[in-house]
Amino acid sequence: MTYIAGSPEDFLAVRHLTLRGSQTEIGQALGAEMKARTSWSPPPIDPLVARARRIWFDRNWPQYAARTAGFAEAYGLPADAAVAFDNATALPPGSGCSALWTGSTLGRNYDFFTLSDTQLGAVLAGVEPVADGTAPMASRPYVLSTIPDDGIASTSLTMSTVDGAMEGVNEAGLVFALLMADIEAATMLDHDPGPQAGLSVPQVGRYLLDTCETVEEAKEALMLAKQYTHGAPCHYIVADASGKGFVYERGAHDIEYFVEVADGPLCVTNHLLHRHPDLDALPEDTPDTMLTYQRLRTITKEADAGPREALDAVSVAIEPGAPWRTLWRSVFDPAARTMSTRFYLGDGDNGTARHSPELTFGVSR
Hints:
The protein is 25% helix and 25% strand. The chain has one domain (7-13, 91-362): Penicillin V Acylase, Chain A (4-Layer Sandwich), CATH 3.60.60.10. It has 365 residues and is an alpha+beta fold. 44% of the residues are buried. The chain has helices at 23-37, 47-60, 62-74, 117-124, 183-186, 203-211, 215-224, 292-302, 307-312, and strands spanning 5-6, 13-21, 97-101, 106-113, 142-148, 154-158, 167-170, 175-180, 234-239, 245-250, 256-259, 266-268, 324-333, 338-347, 353-355, 359-362.
């Protein structure tokens, strides 16, 4: 196996898959990759939920429905099996990310835990985590370049699973990134419904890349899509090659908000912008807010220097005792249809982090 950044000896080992063909063939290749590289298998779900999911995808996201059929074939299962072929793991409470749209480029830091799933569970339960011999949750990301015969080509970056995406760009110049929306609300989630009909948190962005070419199309698609929170609630920053951009949020009673700015940068971290529209009136951070307000002030102030510089100013490097890092920094150029990403490889000497070179991925046929 060839890694494009890092190795099994580093914290991150990043794979890049380029897949061509029909949506079904792409899904079959993704299923073959998961079957070969992981011990994951499709979990059973309620037959009624499985049937509703198939109908929803067929009507609203046929690209995903076709990929799912190919994924099922790779596992020797019928497309109508009462299982969930997606196994997207939404962001658990406590992670933080930052992003800004300058009108021509979108930049984002992806901040996440450096722990395994069981270690994270211990931390959230207030127990000291111990080494358990399993890989950290975010240590094996994928860059996925999909070039379908019958749809929009895209390049996306996913933390671990292959059905959704954390960020990406498509051949029309649409770009997006997801970020946790409300840290305090995430800590209050006491029930995970599991897969439902509609879009899970990490599927939303992949849905936009597959079906939309402009921010106006993306707004309409988001308002029409049935969504559910499978994990922590997130919001999404979306932009296109025309220079338009917005942050999409869902508030109380599932009211939808499109946050935009008339001029200047559009910046977002981990609190709901529609609740805090005035930068000068942001609350002060607490030990539970992961510096979301401070990071927003900083990247707004530093935005004129460029997305890389602004994001580096709020990057999570080495903090003694802190089990999280900025795992990658991406900068998207919608006009060029490119994603340029620098990956965290581990802690270095003298309180610094080791990084890969910045790698640029395009979208081409």
